[in-house]
């Protein structure tokens, strides 16, 4: 069994047009709903006024929603809360839209509104602005969710005193699929921050 010194304080899973927070169903819509419509519905249910949300790409929107819901469960984030995200497709949604705009002649010189999101770590910037974070952040590209890497990485950050908490996990978003699993790690309370436990939570 994995040894652990830190805890998962709260987590959010967005998958198959369903959102769960700490294992409890938050939102469930028709599986055939378009991804961006689903994310818009989730945003409306948050009942917040953040106009910039509507300009974000799909990846940033999904991460925004998950991080917002986690904050409602575990409280406001400290400004040194680190961001350690990962996925497989990077910024695929924005990349494909950017390419189509150029190839179709819609924006032959590229649309700044789309181009700005052609890096996955832009989503981290959106989160940092929203929650006033001044912290370390890193975005890894893996073939699949890899707690075997993320757990020791996060543990080292906390042990070194670089941060008092971490938002970490998997953020895979394409034009049709949303598989987001994010969690808030701290030094006290909550669920064990172990590879074994994270695998169980990720499976839903």
Distance between the termini: 20 Å
- In the CATH hierarchy, the third-tier topology is known as Peroxisomal Thiolase, Chain A, domain 1
Taking pLDDT < 50 over at least 5 consecutive residues as the criterion, the unreliable ranges are none
Number of helices: 7
Radius of gyration: 17 Å
Q: What fraction strand?
A: 15-25%
The outline comes out as globular
Q: Would you tell me the structural class of the helices and strands?
A: alpha+beta
Going by CATH, the homologous superfamily would be Thiolase/Chalcone synthase
| CATH-defined architecture | 3-Layer(aba) Sandwich
The largest β sheet comes out as: 8 strands, mixed
Top-tier CATH class:
Alpha Beta
Q: How many β strands by DSSP? A: 8
What does this protein look like?
The chain is an alpha+beta fold and 204 residues long. The protein has one domain (7-203): Peroxisomal Thiolase, Chain A, domain 1. The chain is 38% helix and 24% strand. The chain contains 7 helices and 8 strands. It has helices at residues 35-46, 58-74, 92-103, 112-115, 122-131, 147-159, 195-203, and strands at 7-15, 18-21, 24-28, 82-87, 137-141, 166-173, 178-186, 191-192. The longest helix has 17 residues, at 58-74.
